[in-house]
Amino acid sequence: MSNNWHDEVLADVEAGVRINDRHIVDRIRQAVLMQRLPPGTRLPEVALGEIFGVSRSVVRKALTRLASDHVITQQPNQVARVSAPSIEETREIFAARRLIEGEVVALLAGKLDHDQCRTVASYIEAECQAHLDDDEAQRIEHSLAIHHYLADHSPNRTLGAMLSDLILCTSIVIALYKRAGLASCYLENDHAELLALLERSDAEGARHCVQTHLTALEALLDLRPQDKSIDLAAIFGKTG
Amino acid sequence: MSNNWHDEVLADVEAGVRINDRHIVDRIRQAVLMQRLPPGTRLPEVALGEIFGVSRSVVRKALTRLASDHVITQQPNQVARVSAPSIEETREIFAARRLIEGEVVALLAGKLDHDQCRTVASYIEAECQAHLDDDEAQRIEHSLAIHHYLADHSPNRTLGAMLSDLILCTSIVIALYKRAGLASCYLENDHAELLALLERSDAEGARHCVQTHLTALEALLDLRPQDKSIDLAAIFGKTG
DNA sequence: CTATTCGATTTTGTATACAATGAATGTCCA
DNA sequence: TGGACATTCATTGTATACAAAATCGAATAG
Protein backbone atom coordinates (compact mmCIF):
# COMPACT_ATOMS: atom_id res chain seq x y z
CA MET A 1 0.00 0.00 0.00
CA SER A 2 2.66 2.49 0.97
CA ASN A 3 5.04 0.99 -1.53
CA ASN A 4 3.79 3.25 -4.28
CA TRP A 5 4.63 6.27 -2.24
CA HIS A 6 8.00 4.86 -1.27
CA ASP A 7 8.92 4.17 -4.88
CA GLU A 8 7.99 7.65 -6.01
CA VAL A 9 10.27 9.13 -3.41
CA LEU A 10 13.11 6.88 -4.45
CA ALA A 11 12.62 7.99 -8.03
CA ASP A 12 13.07 11.57 -6.90
CA VAL A 13 16.23 10.76 -5.03
CA GLU A 14 17.69 8.93 -7.97
CA ALA A 15 16.83 11.84 -10.23
CA GLY A 16 19.06 14.00 -8.04
CA VAL A 17 16.22 16.23 -6.88
CA ARG A 18 17.31 18.31 -3.96
CA ILE A 19 15.36 17.17 -0.94
CA ASN A 20 14.80 19.58 1.90
CA ASP A 21 12.30 19.74 4.71
CA ARG A 22 9.79 21.61 2.55
CA HIS A 23 9.90 18.83 -0.01
CA ILE A 24 9.23 16.26 2.65
CA VAL A 25 6.35 18.28 4.05
CA ASP A 26 4.82 18.54 0.60
CA ARG A 27 5.28 14.85 -0.09
CA ILE A 28 3.69 13.76 3.13
CA ARG A 29 0.88 16.29 2.78
CA GLN A 30 0.22 15.02 -0.72
CA ALA A 31 0.25 11.40 0.39
CA VAL A 32 -2.18 12.17 3.21
CA LEU A 33 -4.34 14.18 0.85
CA MET A 34 -4.51 11.29 -1.61
CA GLN A 35 -5.33 8.99 1.29
CA ARG A 36 -2.25 6.89 0.66
CA LEU A 37 -1.14 7.43 4.24
CA PRO A 38 -4.19 6.52 6.32
CA PRO A 39 -4.84 8.17 9.70
CA GLY A 40 -2.82 6.57 12.46
CA THR A 41 0.07 5.59 10.19
CA ARG A 42 3.36 5.56 12.07
CA LEU A 43 6.01 7.95 10.79
CA PRO A 44 9.34 7.06 12.46
CA GLU A 45 12.10 9.56 11.88
CA VAL A 46 14.82 7.16 10.81
CA ALA A 47 12.60 5.40 8.30
CA LEU A 48 11.59 8.66 6.69
CA GLY A 49 15.21 9.76 6.67
CA GLU A 50 16.25 6.65 4.78
CA ILE A 51 13.37 6.97 2.33
CA PHE A 52 14.16 10.58 1.50
CA GLY A 53 17.92 10.18 1.78
CA VAL A 54 18.42 12.79 4.49
CA SER A 55 19.29 12.73 8.15
CA ARG A 56 16.88 12.90 11.03
CA SER A 57 17.47 16.65 11.43
CA VAL A 58 15.66 17.42 8.22
CA VAL A 59 12.92 14.90 8.90
CA ARG A 60 12.36 16.33 12.35
CA LYS A 61 11.94 19.81 10.98
CA ALA A 62 9.41 18.52 8.47
CA LEU A 63 7.51 16.66 11.17
CA THR A 64 7.42 19.72 13.38
CA ARG A 65 5.83 21.71 10.59
CA LEU A 66 3.33 18.97 9.81
CA ALA A 67 2.38 18.82 13.47
CA SER A 68 1.76 22.57 13.50
CA ASP A 69 -0.66 22.09 10.61
CA HIS A 70 -2.39 19.27 12.51
CA VAL A 71 -1.54 16.83 9.72
CA ILE A 72 0.32 14.59 12.13
CA THR A 73 0.17 14.23 15.89
CA GLN A 74 3.29 14.17 18.03
CA GLN A 75 3.52 13.22 21.66
CA PRO A 76 6.78 13.44 23.62
CA ASN A 77 9.00 10.40 23.18
CA GLN A 78 6.53 8.70 20.87
CA VAL A 79 6.45 8.19 17.15
CA ALA A 80 4.60 10.70 15.05
CA ARG A 81 1.38 9.45 13.51
CA VAL A 82 -0.94 10.73 10.85
CA SER A 83 -3.67 12.54 12.74
CA ALA A 84 -6.90 10.74 13.49
CA PRO A 85 -9.31 13.42 14.66
CA SER A 86 -12.18 12.43 16.92
CA ILE A 87 -15.78 12.61 15.76
CA GLU A 88 -16.25 15.83 17.67
CA GLU A 89 -13.17 17.36 16.09
CA THR A 90 -14.42 16.23 12.72
CA ARG A 91 -17.64 18.17 13.14
CA GLU A 92 -15.63 21.18 14.24
CA ILE A 93 -13.38 20.94 11.22
CA PHE A 94 -16.37 20.89 8.90
CA ALA A 95 -17.96 23.82 10.71
CA ALA A 96 -14.75 25.82 10.49
CA ARG A 97 -14.38 25.00 6.83
CA ARG A 98 -17.95 26.04 6.09
CA LEU A 99 -17.27 29.41 7.67
CA ILE A 100 -13.94 30.02 5.99
CA GLU A 101 -14.48 28.50 2.56
CA GLY A 102 -17.84 30.27 2.47
CA GLU A 103 -16.13 33.59 3.06
CA VAL A 104 -13.39 32.83 0.55
CA VAL A 105 -15.79 32.05 -2.29
CA ALA A 106 -17.89 35.07 -1.36
CA LEU A 107 -14.78 37.24 -1.67
CA LEU A 108 -13.90 35.46 -4.88
CA ALA A 109 -17.27 35.98 -6.59
CA GLY A 110 -16.78 37.99 -9.75
CA LYS A 111 -13.02 38.21 -9.18
CA LEU A 112 -11.91 35.33 -11.41
CA ASP A 113 -11.08 36.28 -14.95
CA HIS A 114 -12.07 34.23 -17.95
CA ASP A 115 -8.93 32.11 -18.04
CA GLN A 116 -9.14 31.30 -14.35
CA CYS A 117 -12.76 30.23 -14.72
CA ARG A 118 -11.77 28.01 -17.61
CA THR A 119 -9.06 26.43 -15.48
CA VAL A 120 -11.56 25.63 -12.76
CA ALA A 121 -13.99 24.36 -15.37
CA SER A 122 -11.35 21.97 -16.67
CA TYR A 123 -10.83 20.58 -13.15
CA ILE A 124 -14.57 20.07 -12.80
CA GLU A 125 -14.70 18.35 -16.15
CA ALA A 126 -11.80 16.10 -15.22
CA GLU A 127 -13.41 15.21 -11.89
CA CYS A 128 -16.63 14.26 -13.64
CA GLN A 129 -14.77 12.15 -16.17
CA ALA A 130 -12.81 10.37 -13.46
CA HIS A 131 -16.07 9.63 -11.70
CA LEU A 132 -17.50 8.11 -14.89
CA ASP A 133 -14.31 6.06 -15.24
CA ASP A 134 -14.66 4.83 -11.66
CA ASP A 135 -11.14 6.12 -11.00
CA GLU A 136 -11.57 7.29 -7.43
CA ALA A 137 -7.95 8.33 -6.91
CA GLN A 138 -8.09 10.62 -9.93
CA ARG A 139 -11.48 11.95 -8.89
CA ILE A 140 -10.17 12.93 -5.46
CA GLU A 141 -7.14 14.56 -7.02
CA HIS A 142 -9.23 16.73 -9.32
CA SER A 143 -11.74 17.56 -6.62
CA LEU A 144 -8.95 18.70 -4.34
CA ALA A 145 -7.47 20.71 -7.20
CA ILE A 146 -10.69 22.72 -7.38
CA HIS A 147 -10.76 23.59 -3.71
CA HIS A 148 -7.04 24.27 -3.54
CA TYR A 149 -7.31 26.56 -6.54
CA LEU A 150 -9.93 28.59 -4.73
CA ALA A 151 -7.81 28.69 -1.57
CA ASP A 152 -4.71 29.74 -3.49
CA HIS A 153 -6.57 32.54 -5.24
CA SER A 154 -8.35 33.86 -2.18
CA PRO A 155 -8.14 37.66 -2.18
CA ASN A 156 -7.49 37.31 1.55
CA ARG A 157 -4.33 35.21 1.71
CA THR A 158 -4.59 34.66 5.46
CA LEU A 159 -7.97 33.03 5.01
CA GLY A 160 -6.65 31.20 1.96
CA ALA A 161 -3.85 29.62 3.99
CA MET A 162 -6.29 28.59 6.69
CA LEU A 163 -8.53 27.04 4.07
CA SER A 164 -5.64 25.03 2.65
CA ASP A 165 -5.03 23.50 6.05
CA LEU A 166 -8.71 22.77 6.52
CA ILE A 167 -8.93 21.05 3.13
CA LEU A 168 -6.13 18.77 4.26
CA CYS A 169 -7.83 18.03 7.57
CA THR A 170 -11.08 17.35 5.76
CA SER A 171 -9.34 14.85 3.54
CA ILE A 172 -8.02 13.08 6.60
CA VAL A 173 -11.37 12.76 8.30
CA ILE A 174 -13.06 11.61 5.09
CA ALA A 175 -10.53 8.80 4.90
CA LEU A 176 -11.28 8.02 8.53
CA TYR A 177 -15.03 8.11 8.62
CA LYS A 178 -16.15 7.32 5.08
CA ARG A 179 -19.13 4.98 5.22
CA ALA A 180 -18.02 1.44 4.51
CA GLY A 181 -20.28 0.77 1.54
CA LEU A 182 -19.61 4.14 -0.08
CA ALA A 183 -17.30 4.00 -3.08
CA SER A 184 -16.90 7.73 -3.47
CA CYS A 185 -17.78 11.07 -1.92
CA TYR A 186 -18.82 12.60 -5.23
CA LEU A 187 -21.60 15.17 -5.23
CA GLU A 188 -22.72 15.79 -8.76
CA ASN A 189 -23.18 19.35 -10.02
CA ASP A 190 -22.13 21.05 -6.80
CA HIS A 191 -18.84 22.23 -8.20
CA ALA A 192 -20.32 23.29 -11.52
CA GLU A 193 -23.04 25.23 -9.74
CA LEU A 194 -20.45 26.96 -7.59
CA LEU A 195 -18.46 28.03 -10.62
CA ALA A 196 -21.58 29.43 -12.27
CA LEU A 197 -22.33 31.49 -9.17
CA LEU A 198 -18.76 32.77 -9.03
CA GLU A 199 -18.94 33.86 -12.65
CA ARG A 200 -22.28 35.54 -11.96
CA SER A 201 -20.68 37.49 -9.07
CA ASP A 202 -23.27 36.09 -6.70
CA ALA A 203 -21.26 36.23 -3.48
CA GLU A 204 -23.98 35.11 -1.09
CA GLY A 205 -25.13 32.43 -3.49
CA ALA A 206 -21.60 31.08 -3.72
CA ARG A 207 -21.23 31.11 0.06
CA HIS A 208 -24.48 29.23 0.47
CA CYS A 209 -23.57 26.76 -2.26
CA VAL A 210 -20.25 25.90 -0.65
CA GLN A 211 -21.77 25.56 2.80
CA THR A 212 -24.48 23.26 1.49
CA HIS A 213 -21.86 21.24 -0.37
CA LEU A 214 -19.80 20.77 2.77
CA THR A 215 -22.81 19.86 4.85
CA ALA A 216 -23.76 17.22 2.27
CA LEU A 217 -20.20 15.91 2.32
CA GLU A 218 -20.25 15.67 6.10
CA ALA A 219 -23.55 13.81 5.91
CA LEU A 220 -21.88 11.15 3.79
CA LEU A 221 -19.65 10.24 6.72
CA ASP A 222 -20.41 7.83 9.49
CA LEU A 223 -20.04 10.03 12.55
CA ARG A 224 -22.01 7.93 14.99
CA PRO A 225 -20.26 7.54 18.33
CA GLN A 226 -18.48 4.33 19.34
CA ASP A 227 -17.13 2.85 16.16
CA LYS A 228 -13.58 1.53 16.19
CA SER A 229 -13.46 0.11 19.69
CA ILE A 230 -16.63 -1.90 19.33
CA ASP A 231 -15.38 -3.67 16.23
CA LEU A 232 -12.99 -5.83 18.21
CA ALA A 233 -15.56 -6.71 20.85
CA ALA A 234 -18.11 -7.62 18.20
CA ILE A 235 -15.73 -9.79 16.20
CA PHE A 236 -13.91 -11.60 18.99
CA GLY A 237 -16.58 -11.13 21.65
CA LYS A 238 -17.37 -13.51 24.47
CA THR A 239 -20.19 -15.07 22.45
CA GLY A 240 -17.72 -16.49 19.90
CA MET B 1 14.74 47.18 26.11
CA SER B 2 15.06 43.47 25.71
CA ASN B 3 16.98 43.24 28.95
CA ASN B 4 13.81 42.74 30.92
CA TRP B 5 12.96 39.73 28.88
CA HIS B 6 16.49 38.40 29.10
CA ASP B 7 16.54 38.69 32.85
CA GLU B 8 13.22 36.92 33.26
CA VAL B 9 14.52 34.00 31.26
CA LEU B 10 17.68 33.84 33.34
CA ALA B 11 15.54 33.77 36.47
CA ASP B 12 13.77 30.72 35.10
CA VAL B 13 16.99 28.97 34.35
CA GLU B 14 18.38 29.65 37.79
CA ALA B 15 15.17 28.37 39.34
CA GLY B 16 15.86 25.07 37.66
CA VAL B 17 12.78 25.23 35.47
CA ARG B 18 12.96 22.64 32.75
CA ILE B 19 13.26 24.46 29.45
CA ASN B 20 12.03 22.77 26.33
CA ASP B 21 11.00 24.01 22.93
CA ARG B 22 7.45 24.62 24.09
CA HIS B 23 8.67 26.87 26.85
CA ILE B 24 10.70 28.87 24.40
CA VAL B 25 7.77 29.18 22.04
CA ASP B 26 5.57 30.45 24.86
CA ARG B 27 8.19 32.88 26.05
CA ILE B 28 8.75 34.37 22.64
CA ARG B 29 5.03 34.48 21.90
CA GLN B 30 4.46 36.27 25.17
CA ALA B 31 7.24 38.74 24.52
CA VAL B 32 5.86 39.49 21.06
CA LEU B 33 2.36 39.78 22.46
CA MET B 34 3.51 42.28 25.06
CA GLN B 35 5.32 44.15 22.34
CA ARG B 36 8.66 43.69 24.06
CA LEU B 37 10.05 42.15 20.88
CA PRO B 38 9.18 44.63 18.14
CA PRO B 39 8.55 43.46 14.57
CA GLY B 40 11.79 42.93 12.68
CA THR B 41 13.80 41.97 15.78
CA ARG B 42 16.59 39.54 14.93
CA LEU B 43 16.40 36.14 16.64
CA PRO B 44 19.73 34.34 16.10
CA GLU B 45 19.75 30.72 17.15
CA VAL B 46 22.93 30.74 19.20
CA ALA B 47 21.92 33.82 21.14
CA LEU B 48 18.57 32.30 22.05
CA GLY B 49 20.30 29.06 22.95
CA GLU B 50 22.58 30.82 25.38
CA ILE B 51 19.74 32.84 26.88
CA PHE B 52 17.59 29.78 27.49
CA GLY B 53 20.48 27.48 28.33
CA VAL B 54 19.81 24.92 25.60
CA SER B 55 21.46 23.95 22.37
CA ARG B 56 20.50 25.11 18.92
CA SER B 57 18.46 21.97 18.31
CA VAL B 58 15.82 23.02 20.77
CA VAL B 59 15.87 26.61 19.65
CA ARG B 60 15.47 25.56 16.02
CA LYS B 61 12.44 23.48 16.84
CA ALA B 62 10.89 26.42 18.67
CA LEU B 63 11.62 28.75 15.77
CA THR B 64 10.09 26.33 13.28
CA ARG B 65 6.88 26.29 15.28
CA LEU B 66 6.82 30.06 15.62
CA ALA B 67 7.29 30.38 11.88
CA SER B 68 4.33 28.06 11.29
CA ASP B 69 2.22 30.40 13.38
CA HIS B 70 3.47 33.42 11.41
CA VAL B 71 4.92 34.92 14.57
CA ILE B 72 8.38 35.01 13.04
CA THR B 73 9.57 34.94 9.47
CA GLN B 74 12.30 32.60 8.30
CA GLN B 75 14.11 32.70 5.01
CA PRO B 76 16.70 30.11 4.05
CA ASN B 77 20.16 30.85 5.41
CA GLN B 78 18.97 34.00 7.04
CA VAL B 79 18.35 34.94 10.62
CA ALA B 80 14.78 34.61 11.87
CA ARG B 81 12.97 37.85 12.59
CA VAL B 82 9.78 38.82 14.31
CA SER B 83 7.22 39.12 11.53
CA ALA B 84 6.46 42.52 10.08
CA PRO B 85 3.33 42.06 7.97
CA SER B 86 2.68 44.47 5.12
CA ILE B 87 -0.21 46.89 5.17
CA GLU B 88 -2.18 44.65 2.87
CA GLU B 89 -1.55 41.62 5.08
CA THR B 90 -2.59 43.69 8.08
CA ARG B 91 -5.97 44.40 6.53
CA GLU B 92 -6.33 40.72 5.72
CA ILE B 93 -5.48 39.72 9.27
CA PHE B 94 -8.14 42.05 10.63
CA ALA B 95 -10.70 40.79 8.12
CA ALA B 96 -9.92 37.17 9.02
CA ARG B 97 -10.15 37.95 12.70
CA ARG B 98 -13.50 39.69 12.28
CA LEU B 99 -14.85 36.60 10.58
CA ILE B 100 -13.49 34.09 13.05
CA GLU B 101 -13.79 35.96 16.33
CA GLY B 102 -17.30 36.95 15.27
CA GLU B 103 -18.21 33.31 14.83
CA VAL B 104 -16.53 32.30 18.08
CA VAL B 105 -18.45 34.81 20.17
CA ALA B 106 -21.66 33.92 18.36
CA LEU B 107 -21.10 30.29 19.29
CA LEU B 108 -20.21 31.34 22.80
CA ALA B 109 -23.32 33.44 23.43
CA GLY B 110 -25.23 31.99 26.36
CA LYS B 111 -22.65 29.25 26.86
CA LEU B 112 -20.59 30.85 29.60
CA ASP B 113 -21.67 30.00 33.11
CA HIS B 114 -21.80 32.52 35.90
CA ASP B 115 -18.25 31.93 37.13
CA GLN B 116 -16.81 32.24 33.65
CA CYS B 117 -18.65 35.50 33.10
CA ARG B 118 -17.28 36.80 36.36
CA THR B 119 -13.77 35.86 35.29
CA VAL B 120 -14.17 37.83 32.07
CA ALA B 121 -15.71 40.70 34.02
CA SER B 122 -12.64 40.79 36.27
CA TYR B 123 -10.37 41.05 33.22
CA ILE B 124 -12.48 43.91 31.89
CA GLU B 125 -12.35 45.64 35.25
CA ALA B 126 -8.58 45.21 35.41
CA GLU B 127 -8.16 46.58 31.91
CA CYS B 128 -10.18 49.64 32.76
CA GLN B 129 -8.22 50.20 35.95
CA ALA B 130 -4.90 49.86 34.11
CA HIS B 131 -6.14 52.42 31.59
CA LEU B 132 -6.98 54.84 34.39
CA ASP B 133 -3.52 54.23 35.86
CA ASP B 134 -1.92 54.96 32.47
CA ASP B 135 -0.20 51.58 32.69
CA GLU B 136 -0.28 50.60 29.04
CA ALA B 137 1.61 47.31 29.46
CA GLN B 138 -0.87 46.11 32.04
CA ARG B 139 -3.80 47.30 29.95
CA ILE B 140 -2.59 45.31 26.92
CA GLU B 141 -2.08 42.25 29.09
CA HIS B 142 -5.61 42.36 30.46
CA SER B 143 -7.12 43.12 27.07
CA LEU B 144 -5.35 40.14 25.56
CA ALA B 145 -6.50 38.01 28.48
CA ILE B 146 -10.10 38.75 27.53
CA HIS B 147 -9.71 37.74 23.91
CA HIS B 148 -7.59 34.70 24.71
CA TYR B 149 -10.16 33.58 27.24
CA LEU B 150 -12.83 33.66 24.55
CA ALA B 151 -10.55 31.79 22.13
CA ASP B 152 -9.69 29.14 24.72
CA HIS B 153 -13.34 28.57 25.53
CA SER B 154 -14.59 28.45 21.97
CA PRO B 155 -17.01 25.54 21.59
CA ASN B 156 -15.28 24.92 18.27
CA ARG B 157 -11.67 24.30 19.23
CA THR B 158 -10.42 24.46 15.68
CA LEU B 159 -11.74 27.99 15.34
CA GLY B 160 -10.45 28.76 18.81
CA ALA B 161 -6.91 27.79 17.86
CA MET B 162 -7.12 29.88 14.71
CA LEU B 163 -8.33 32.81 16.75
CA SER B 164 -5.40 32.50 19.16
CA ASP B 165 -2.99 32.81 16.26
CA LEU B 166 -4.87 35.78 14.85
CA ILE B 167 -4.82 37.57 18.21
CA LEU B 168 -1.05 37.20 18.20
CA CYS B 169 -0.77 38.51 14.64
CA THR B 170 -3.04 41.42 15.51
CA SER B 171 -0.80 42.32 18.40
CA ILE B 172 2.17 42.37 16.05
CA VAL B 173 0.58 44.68 13.52
CA ILE B 174 -0.71 47.02 16.21
CA ALA B 175 2.87 47.38 17.45
CA LEU B 176 3.93 48.04 13.86
CA TYR B 177 1.33 50.49 12.70
CA LYS B 178 0.08 52.24 15.82
CA ARG B 179 -0.31 55.93 15.09
CA ALA B 180 2.63 57.85 16.47
CA GLY B 181 0.68 60.19 18.75
CA LEU B 182 -1.59 57.48 20.12
CA ALA B 183 -0.75 56.37 23.63
CA SER B 184 -3.11 53.41 23.71
CA CYS B 185 -5.53 51.39 21.62
CA TYR B 186 -8.18 51.36 24.30
CA LEU B 187 -11.80 51.37 23.23
CA GLU B 188 -14.00 52.07 26.21
CA ASN B 189 -17.07 49.96 26.91
CA ASP B 190 -16.59 47.63 23.92
CA HIS B 191 -15.54 44.70 26.06
CA ALA B 192 -18.21 45.31 28.67
CA GLU B 193 -20.86 45.54 25.99
CA LEU B 194 -19.68 42.28 24.50
CA LEU B 195 -19.90 40.50 27.82
CA ALA B 196 -23.44 41.78 28.34
CA LEU B 197 -24.47 40.43 24.94
CA LEU B 198 -22.87 37.06 25.68
CA GLU B 199 -24.74 36.81 28.96
CA ARG B 200 -27.95 37.77 27.18
CA SER B 201 -27.36 34.93 24.64
CA ASP B 202 -27.52 37.44 21.80
CA ALA B 203 -25.32 35.61 19.30
CA GLU B 204 -25.74 37.99 16.39
CA GLY B 205 -25.41 41.00 18.64
CA ALA B 206 -22.15 39.62 20.01
CA ARG B 207 -20.85 38.92 16.51
CA HIS B 208 -21.67 42.44 15.42
CA CYS B 209 -20.16 43.92 18.55
CA VAL B 210 -16.86 42.12 18.05
CA GLN B 211 -16.69 43.00 14.38
CA THR B 212 -17.36 46.66 15.11
CA HIS B 213 -14.75 46.57 17.86
CA LEU B 214 -12.12 45.16 15.50
CA THR B 215 -12.98 47.62 12.77
CA ALA B 216 -12.57 50.46 15.25
CA LEU B 217 -9.25 49.02 16.36
CA GLU B 218 -8.05 48.80 12.76
CA ALA B 219 -9.11 52.41 12.22
CA LEU B 220 -6.76 53.48 15.01
CA LEU B 221 -3.80 52.29 12.96
CA ASP B 222 -1.93 54.24 10.34
CA LEU B 223 -2.35 52.03 7.30
CA ARG B 224 -1.66 54.60 4.64
CA PRO B 225 0.61 53.29 1.91
CA GLN B 226 4.23 54.40 1.61
CA ASP B 227 5.39 54.89 5.14
CA LYS B 228 8.80 53.61 6.00
CA SER B 229 10.45 54.08 2.64
CA ILE B 230 9.34 57.67 2.18
CA ASP B 231 10.71 58.69 5.53
CA LEU B 232 14.23 58.14 4.33
CA ALA B 233 13.64 59.94 1.06
CA ALA B 234 12.09 62.89 2.85
CA ILE B 235 14.83 63.19 5.42
CA PHE B 236 17.90 62.54 3.32
CA GLY B 237 16.39 63.63 -0.02
CA LYS B 238 18.35 65.25 -2.80
CA THR B 239 16.97 68.67 -1.82
CA GLY B 240 18.98 68.62 1.41
C1' DC C 1 33.94 60.05 -3.68
C1' DT C 2 31.59 55.95 -5.30
C1' DA C 3 31.18 51.40 -6.55
C1' DT C 4 33.02 46.83 -6.34
C1' DT C 5 35.36 42.96 -4.89
C1' DC C 6 37.50 40.15 -1.59
C1' DG C 7 37.95 38.20 2.91
C1' DA C 8 36.71 37.57 7.77
C1' DT C 9 32.96 36.76 10.69
C1' DT C 10 28.51 35.50 11.73
C1' DT C 11 24.78 32.49 11.11
C1' DT C 12 22.27 28.77 9.40
C1' DG C 13 22.00 23.74 7.28
C1' DT C 14 23.00 18.98 7.96
C1' DA C 15 24.80 14.83 9.86
C1' DT C 16 25.91 12.16 13.69
C1' DA C 17 26.84 10.53 18.46
C1' DC C 18 25.08 9.59 22.74
C1' DA C 19 21.52 9.82 26.41
C1' DA C 20 16.89 8.93 27.84
C1' DT C 21 12.51 7.32 27.37
C1' DG C 22 8.87 3.87 25.94
C1' DA C 23 7.06 -0.37 24.22
C1' DA C 24 7.36 -5.26 23.81
C1' DT C 25 8.76 -9.45 25.14
C1' DG C 26 10.22 -12.98 28.06
C1' DT C 27 10.97 -14.77 32.79
C1' DC C 28 10.24 -15.85 37.35
C1' DC C 29 7.53 -16.69 41.27
C1' DA C 30 3.14 -17.19 43.65
C1' DT D 1 -2.40 -19.60 35.04
C1' DG D 2 -1.50 -14.91 35.92
C1' DG D 3 0.73 -10.99 37.18
C1' DA D 4 4.91 -8.31 38.51
C1' DC D 5 9.37 -7.46 37.07
C1' DA D 6 13.45 -7.12 34.28
C1' DT D 7 15.65 -7.06 29.91
C1' DT D 8 15.97 -5.71 25.17
C1' DC D 9 14.95 -3.19 21.23
C1' DA D 10 13.12 0.71 18.92
C1' DT D 11 12.62 5.52 18.90
C1' DT D 12 12.93 10.15 20.22
C1' DG D 13 15.61 14.22 22.75
C1' DT D 14 19.71 16.86 22.89
C1' DA D 15 24.30 18.45 22.05
C1' DT D 16 27.92 19.15 19.02
C1' DA D 17 30.95 19.21 14.87
C1' DC D 18 31.55 20.59 10.39
C1' DA D 19 29.95 22.50 5.88
C1' DA D 20 27.66 26.09 3.34
C1' DA D 21 25.79 30.40 2.86
C1' DA D 22 25.10 35.23 3.92
C1' DT D 23 26.48 39.54 6.02
C1' DC D 24 29.61 43.12 7.13
C1' DG D 25 33.71 45.80 6.51
C1' DA D 26 37.79 47.19 4.47
C1' DA D 27 40.67 47.79 0.72
C1' DT D 28 41.08 48.99 -3.98
C1' DA D 29 40.14 50.58 -8.64
C1' DG D 30 37.63 53.86 -11.41
Automatic annotation (TrEMBL), chains A, B:
Residues 18-85 form the HTH gntR-type domain. InterPro entries: GntR_C, TF_FadR/GntR_C, Tscrpt_reg_HTH_GntR, WH-like_DNA-bd_sf, WH_DNA-bd_sf. This is HTH gntR-type domain-containing protein. Keywords: DNA-binding, Transcription, Transcription regulation. GO terms for molecular function: DNA binding; DNA-binding transcription factor activity. The keyword Transcription regulation applies. It holds the Pfam family GntR. SUPFAM superfamilies: GntR ligand-binding domain-like, Winged helix' DNA-binding domain. It comes from Litchfieldella anticariensis (strain DSM 16096 / CECT 5854 / CIP 108499 / LMG 22089 / FP35) (Halomonas anticariensis).
